[in-house]
Amino acid sequence: MTDSPGETARFLARNAVETLPEGALERQLAEGRPLRVKLGIDPTAPDIHLGHTVVLRKLREFQDLGHTVVLIIGDYTARVGDPSGRSATRPLLSGEEVDSNAETFQRQAFAVLDEAKTEVRRNSEWLDMPMEDLFRLARTSTVAQILERDDFAKRQEAREAISILELLYPLLQGYDSVMVKSDVELGGTDQKFNLLLARDIQTAYGVPPQSILTMPILPGLDGVQRMSKSLRNYVGVTEEPAEVFGKLMSIPDTAMGTYADLLLEEPPDPALHPRDAKRAMASALTARLHGEEAAREAQEHFDRLHLRHELPEEVEEAAIPAEGGVVHLPAVLREAFGISASEARRLLAQGGVKVDGEPLDGELDVPADRLDGAVLQLGKRRFKRIRIV
Questions:
Q1: Where among 271, 306, 341 does a domain terminate?
Q2: 152 and 17: one domain?
Q3: What is the pLDDT of residues 137-155, one digit of tens each?
Q4: Could you tell me the residue range of the domain that residue 268 belongs to?
Q5: What span, in angstroms and rounded, lies between the C-alpha atoms of 227 and 223?
Q6: Which residues, in sequence order, are bridge partners of residue 198?
Q7: In total, how many domains does the chain have?
């Protein structure tokens, strides 16, 4: 890596969507000091998925160049709910849920980030402010300015409710940049408004304004909507290797290029058949999360189930009570796989449940001896051997 600020700026910006203002990052790098590079995360869910790693890996690049990452755990703003990219108000989480999610998220983030070069802050340190300080912050922006946001504009046009609390969210996020004196802030493309507004708020408080990098948003397993736990189209970084590999093999061929570019930074090998290119990508990403040996075992597990149509080598057992010699399948699925009774009924109706490889066509009650010792399969990758007790 060259020491030229221009070359370094181009390297850091090479896979970003936008780097704003133009030339600002290069000028900051030319100062020759470690930059404070901010990422704010609201811990609305406990686990990191592959979509999060797009930004985390960019932060790691800054760290490897000698800069400091300031990871802000938005334990206070999570109680507000970030409206970015949302068409409705987010449900509020309890303080206990936020704290638990924050702890898990922070621990998993260090699988990518260098902990020694990461400053972790919680914005409850400064956002639990006196009313006078909130009034000062509110004076830095106008309602018209906030309502220019695309998501707010759409909701206003549709006459959907926008709470005063949501209007405050961009101001609170911008105030984070004031308090940690961030030089650079990263976020997804849906965060562009908030990141730019933070520059205005920093200026209002006499803090040099940050530059911003917006990163692409990784599509979920459907290849269309953004990867999200709430949409159930995600790959968690702590999921079992076989689950990671299997989920990645399920993405549509049309999404492979995006996954390869954002997660591996190289296009799929054009000489490979799309199926083989997908296997190579799934193996590489599984190895990144769990190691080469785990990736090989995950690939063998996938082949055993989906190519040779065999059972897994090891199937966990589930003890299920039976009354009157009959078992109620929704209750069995709830007990064995931890899903809701309504989801169990839906999967049964759709033929998504099998016993020893044979689909259960909407059956809700079956003889206990039919299930005793049998392998119950939920979807493509989840298995339990049932023992009736």
A1: 306
A2: yes
A3: 999 999 888 888 777 888 8
A4: 241-306
A5: 9
A6: none
A7: 3
Crossing angle between the packed helical segments 292-306 and 241-249, to the nearest 10 degrees = 60
Query: What are the structure tokens assigned to 278, written together?
Result: 């997908």
Altogether, the residues listed in the chain come to a count of 389
Query: Same domain, yes or no, for 49 and 170?
Result: yes
pLDDT tens-digit readout, 323-352: 778 888 888 888 888 888 888 888 888 888
Residue 230 lies in a domain: no
Q: Angle at the Cα of 220 (from 92 to 299), degrees rounded to 5? A: 125
What are the residue ranges in the chain where pLDDT is below 50?
Answer: 85-89
**How much helix, strand and coil, in percent to the nearest 5, is found in the chain?**
45, 15, 35
Q: How much is the pTM? A: 0.76
Check which CATH number belongs to the domain holding 10 and give it.
3.40.50.620
* DSSP-assigned beta bridge partners for residue 378: 353, 382
**Residue 321 · residue 342 · CB < 8 Å:** no
- The DSSP-derived string for 340-388 is -HHHHHHHHHTT-EEETTEE--S--EEEHHHHTTPEEEETTTEEEEEEE
